[in-house]
Amino acid sequence: MMCPKFMGKRLSSEQEDIAEEWVQANHPEWLVLIMGFKLQDTSLFSKSMFSPEVKEKLAMSQWWQLVEKRSTKNEDLRSFCQFIVKLEEDDAELIYRKLFTNREEDCMFQRRRVEGAFENLVKRHLFGNDTKFKEYFRLSINLFQQVLALIEGDVAARPCNRRRQPISVEEKPCLSLRYLATGESFRSLAFQYRISHSWIGQLIPEVLDAIIKNLPIYLPALTTIAFEAIESSFHELWGIPNCCGAIDGKHV
């Protein structure tokens, strides 16, 4: 919600409401700062801080550290900056659960490394069987390894004191590919992989952003005439109107 690069676009409205309710209950003086951040209020934040160059080049913690250094006279803003940096440095999933929910982590999710689909199905059976791997993820093991090599630097999570075994760099793309291959709901994937559906909602965009960044896909330029010809063929052959293409059986 407070990442200048995404400006809250990676949060659902429910998650944003939960975060703001927590702020209202615990630090109501920060609400004005949050609203000012969303509105890019130049009385609180320098206009240059929201320039595309700054937002793209600085990590979230670096951006807020710079804001803190410039806010020598606003103690509320300084403490808020320190809080955001702390969130970024620590394990975000655990902090989210601790701050924004009043319950312990579900024991089902605590047993991810024992009961999760990645450990029991993917690692034990699919990584050694290219045919079954392709049936499950819709791509070969070799292609998966190529994609992983390109994006692992952007999706790897470092261990921390509160979570020494974060979700692995291999499991994140596996989870994302399963979602792309099937269109399963986040809640359904949560039961299979033993990862909360809200956290899955953060992981999948992270992986997809990394794929877009490191694996550019080039499509041939198509004219209106070409689209109309493709649509006509789909309609005549399969009885599907207004379809201009299909990716692995999913109509587009």
Automatic annotation (TrEMBL):
Protein name in UniProt: Transposase Helix-turn-helix domain-containing protein
Superkingdom in the source lineage: Eukaryota
Species per Swiss-Prot/TrEMBL record: Oedothorax gibbosus
